[in-house]
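Please, structure for the following, as tokens.
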Amino acid sequence: MKAPRHRAVERSVLAFAGLLTLVVLALSAYLRFEAADLGCADWPDCYARIAAVEQRAGGPVAALRRTTASVLGLVALGYFFFALRRRRRRIAGTALVALTALLAWVGVHTPSPLEPWVTLLNVTAGMALLGVYGGLWLHPDAPPPARWTGRRVAAGVGVGIVFAQIALGAWASAHYSEPACPGLLCPADASAVRIADAFDPTRRLAVAEGRVAVDGVSAVVQRAHRLGALLAFLYIGALALRALRTPAARAAGLAVLALLLVQTALGFAGSLLGYPLWIAVGHNAVAAVLLLGAVRLYHVYARD
């Protein structure tokens, strides 16, 4: 009876850590968007004022985020030592500590509004941390690897596509590209920008008239994000619909399909309504839960 009790405690800790990670991701998105004044009253002229963005956000929300992140760091460290002592899940425990340390290091460089790589690392490392916690919670006993069926490979590709689309969204956010494509359209002159410039990790953003400049590069990044959203919608939607035909995967597929529709609706609403703050934060939060849903679907197929 001792082993089942240990597993129950472990799963509770992993669920708690996953919830904390979701909270940190949502609070980080809120602080980032609020500092940039996303969806401000005089949109878009009031957006991305460099003096406001460069000021480290304070107040109760920032304090709550720091406290939650600190607790999350202690949980990751505790799980690492637990994994070493139990001689199981040591690679996953090391990954948790490494990702937590990376997030702490990136936090030292935050805010850096003219360095898009800071936002990219902050978001993707946080999402990867959430994915690891989700995977551990789903399979805490480390079952023997199943054979690589076509459905399992397709679900694994789906996890990668969701993560890549999240990274594209982070890159677009880091370029303050929301005003670059008003409504659902992007300006034609964006085609003159080189793709290499739009995705150069060393590129610093320019400042014009006291604001982060929104230029052709911003439009290319936003266009790439929207194209990625279309491709992700088609692939993940097909993957979820296929899962509905498999009894063991039906619940996971239904959850992924529902989350995909909500995420798409939030994306359209943000574009059409001038990016209200609550829609942008919700878009980020639902993306994190969608990633968990894709991970769950992969693990369902891994048990086949």
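The two ends are 27 Å apart (CA to CA). Residues 262 and 286 are 8 Å apart (CA to CA).
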